[in-house]
Structures are given as C-alpha cells and as structure tokens.
Amino acid sequence: MRQRIASIGFLLLFLAPYTAQVHAAERVTYCEDSIFQIEDDVISLLGGSKWETIGFGFFLSFQDALIISGSAIVDGEPFQYNELLSDGNRSLVIPVSGTCVSSTGKRATVVREEEDGEKLTLDDGTVLRFSSYDSFDTGFWLPPYEVLITGDGLYMWNLDDGKKVWVQSIQ
User: Fold this and answer.
1) 148 pairs with which residues across the strands?
2) Are 33 and 3 in contact, with CB atoms under 8 Å apart?
3) Cα separation of 64 and 38, whole Å?
C-alpha cells in the first residue's frame, strides 16, 4: 500500500508542474496551520494534528503549512490524498492523529499576468486584482503556476512557492 501511495505521490507531485496548463479550476478542502515539530517522517502542526510524510520533503519548524485534500483517478479507481505544502516544498501525507480545521477553496492555475502583477487571470477566466505591495511578489511569478484561492476570497496561495498574498478584488 505504501509503495502504491509513493507511486501516486510521484505522479501527483512531480508531474504537476508539467500539467499545470491543463489543470481545470476545482473546489478543494484545505487546512491552514504552522509546522510545530518534525520527528523523522512525522510533522506536528501547531493546531495539534500530526501527519506522516511520504517521500522526500524538506520542511522546517514554524513555517506556514497548507494541507490540501483531494482525489485523483488512479488505475480507473478514485484515490483520496492529502498534500502538505510549505515554503515551496510538497509531500503527500497521511493523518496520524488529531484534526485540522478545514475550509473549502478553489484550486486553479494562473495563466496570465498583467500590469506588473496587479492583475492575474486564472484558467477559468476569473480575474484577480492585487495591491502594489503584493504585486511585488505576483509580478515575479511566471505563469502557469498553481494557486489556491481561500474560501472567503481574501487570500491566494502560490502552491509552487508556498507564499500567501492578499487578494484585493475578484472579478
């Protein structure tokens, strides 16, 4: 089972940048937290949950962390997964103990950047606007790249860099 999860992890994590252009916007469940402690392959979050990592990931304590829960079709069957993202690092994870307060957001791909990063267009046609402060970051990110728009629409996470920026408006 662990070998199958590792194989699926390879497909999901390492081939994702090459498939970002065809990634359609989708609703996902996510959890925002911070890494508290790392012992071997188990990561403890400040909220109290613990997660076992599968595969390689270089995570540091006290970094922001994002856990995205999703599903993929593998060998014709649905497969549920949890993906930990922090500071540009990714790893599939298995819950060990505790729970994480989750929300629903939109996972999408940025396909166009305009006005020095103040305007981004997603693959579903949604246009996001950012302040000049946050456009300092968004202007340097080269599309296509995956993002998560939080359920309240206030923030956007760049899933490749692990950085969160404030969304000024959504059109």
Assistant:
1) 107, 157
2) no
3) 14
Domain boundaries, given as residue ranges, for the chain: 2-103, 105-170
Q: What is the pLDDT along the chain (171 residues), one digit of tens a residue?
A: 555 555 555 545 444 443 344 456 789 999 999 999 999 899 999 999 999 999 777 899 999 999 999 888 888 999 899 999 998 899 999 999 999 999 999 999 999 999 999 999 999 999 999 999 999 999 999 999 999 999 998 999 999 988 999 999 998
Q: How far apart are CA 133 and CA 113, in angstroms?
A: 16
> How do 145-149 and 89-97 pair as beta strands?
unpaired
CA distance 112 to 94: 34
Q: DSSP E strands: which ranges in the chain?
A: 26-39, 42-45, 50-54, 64-74, 77-86, 89-97, 103-114, 119-122, 127-129, 145-149, 155-158, 163-166, 169-170
Full-model pTM = 0.79
